[in-house]
């Protein structure tokens, strides 16, 4: 192991088998860390096929591991490589461990999956633990309903890692909002590791000058987003029916269909949008915070990142949560509605145009999220930075000012 004096290194793992949520959460944390810690560099391990579409701050970089896709039956397939899923998982695990060995992080943050996808980070966790790396498991505010999460974690045998490997477990939410591990019998040693950070706030910093906003955004508009779009057809269908009907809808709408929506459904939706004068549609925008900031309201499925944007940018919102394969979005949306932060519509698959149109007409009369006072609600990034402070590597005063080492690229050659 080479002796270092280049500041603190943080490695973040995001398995990214479906959608954009894990990648966007990890990217938000990485940017907040380097912004507050000038001697820190962060490397993100991600399986997202579109990670290269996002921009990253100085001292943040990524390693793209081979992608996998979760099928509707819960099984996994290789995303692009024509090889068996077991070979892909072995390749991913080797790249993860090799990257961790070379990058030599001071802190390793694992997003959501304690052992990684199918246990792919287990060996890396043990290796880094032996090196003295601080290990953190980061959990979103809601995981799933207890009757589903408890047997899943028992089957994956994650408790030994929580007990013996991880130093802390960060929950990116508040206990008065939800306990993501409700129903799991946690040993006292594990329970003491849990820290609630609050939600991770988002800002609407200006996108690059070449970023082109759709014409519809030049006047008051609604933003409709199903996140990654892989399971968002129902939301888009419901909104389109409202605009196609004779019902009165107060604002034009911009639909962001998502990069993972099935091609056939995306083409069908775009053809219908072309016939509607008050709707525009795009597939993807890497600067969603900017679109949320400029919208008068949001209609969304209610994933973690969208929820954080709605709270941070203080937007009235209608949430149509999914219930499969997890109840996560429904639990979050129901609790948020109970607190007065958003309005929830349940998807009964009837997609009644009158119901959606009525909700859209009522949207301007909803309370703003800022009118609901919940102490510590959006202090997540501030608290993450506070939590890492005891683990920062001191940099000698006479160290070179150049940050070439902190921005190094990890390269793999066949």
- Measure the end-to-end span: 23 Å
**Biggest sheet: strands side by side, in what order?**
3-2-1-6-7-8-9
- How many domains? 2
> What is the CATH architecture term of the largest domain?
3-Layer(aba) Sandwich
| Percent in strands | 15-25%
| CATH-assigned homologous superfamily of the largest domain | Glycogen Phosphorylase B
Notes on the structure:
Strand 14, helix 11 and strand 15 (343-344) form a beta-alpha-beta unit. The protein has helices at 21-36, 85-103, 122-131, 146-156, 159-164, 188-191, 233-244, 263-273, 288-294, 304-312, 328-338, 353-362, 380-388; strands at 8-14, 40-46, 60-64, 68-70, 76-78, 107-111, 134-140, 168-172, 194-196, 222-225, 253-256, 279-282, 297-300, 317-319, 343-344. It has a seven-stranded parallel β-sheet, with helices on both faces. A six-stranded parallel β-sheet has the order 12-11-10-13-14-15, with helices on both faces. A two-stranded antiparallel ribbon has the order 4-5. Helix 1 crosses helix 13. The chain folds into two domains: 8-201 and 378-407, 3-Layer(aba) Sandwich (Rossmann fold); 215-371, Rossmann fold, CATH 3.40.50.2000. The protein is an alpha/beta fold and 414 residues long. Helices cover 33% and strands 16% of the residues. It contains 13 helices and 15 strands.
């Amino acid at each position: 192991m080479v002796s270092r004096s280049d500041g603190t290194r943080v490695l973040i793992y995001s398995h990214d088998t479906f959608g954009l949520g894990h990648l966007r959460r990890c990217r938000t944390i990485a940017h907040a860390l380097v912004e507050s810690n000038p001697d820190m560099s962060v490397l993100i391990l991600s399986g997202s096929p579109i990670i290269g579409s996002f921009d990253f701050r100085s001292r943040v970089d990524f390693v793209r591991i081979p992608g996998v896709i979760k099928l509707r039956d819960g099984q996994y397939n290789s995303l692009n490589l024509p090889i068996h899923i077991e070979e892909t998982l072995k390749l991913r695990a080797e790249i993860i461990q090799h990257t961790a060995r070379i990058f030599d992080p001071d802190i390793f943050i694992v997003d959501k999956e304690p052992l990684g996808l199918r246990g792919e980070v287990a060996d890396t966790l043990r290796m880094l633990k032996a090196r003295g790396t601080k290990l953190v498991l980061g959990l979103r505010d809601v995981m799933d309903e207890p009757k589903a999460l408890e047997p899943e974690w028992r089957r994956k045998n994650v408790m030994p890692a929580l007990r013996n490997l991880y130093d802390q477990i960060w929950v990116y939410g508040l206990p008065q909002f939800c306990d993501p591990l409700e129903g799991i019998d946690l040993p006292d040693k594990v329970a003491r590791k849990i820290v609630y950070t609050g939600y991770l706030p988002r800002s609407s910093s200006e996108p690059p000058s070449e970023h082109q906003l759709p014409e519809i955004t030049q006047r008051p508009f609604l933003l409709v987003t199903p996140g990654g779009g892989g399971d968002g057809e129902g939301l888009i269908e419901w909104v389109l029916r409202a605009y196609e009907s004779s019902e009165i809808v107060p604002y034009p709408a911009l639909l962001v269909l998502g990069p993972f929506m099935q091609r056939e459904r995306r083409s069908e939706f775009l053809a219908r949008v072309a016939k509607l004068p008050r709707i525009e549609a795009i597939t993807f925008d890497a600067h969603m915070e900017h679109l949320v900031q400029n919208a008068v309201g949001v209609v969304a499925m209610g994933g973690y990142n969208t929820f954080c944007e709605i709270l941070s940018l203080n937007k009235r919102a209608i949430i149509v949560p999914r219930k499969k394969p997890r109840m996560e979005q429904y639990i979050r949306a129901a609790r948020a509605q109970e607190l007065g932060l958003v309005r929830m519509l349940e998807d009964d698959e009837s997609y009644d145009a009158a119901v959606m149109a009525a909700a859209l007409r009522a949207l301007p009369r909803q309370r703003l999220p800022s009118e609901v006072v919940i102490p510590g609600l959006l202090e997540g990034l501030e608290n993450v930075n506070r939590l890492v402070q005891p683990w920062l590597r001191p940099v000698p005063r006479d160290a070179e000012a150049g940050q070439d080492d902190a921005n190094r690229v990890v390269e793999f050659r066949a």
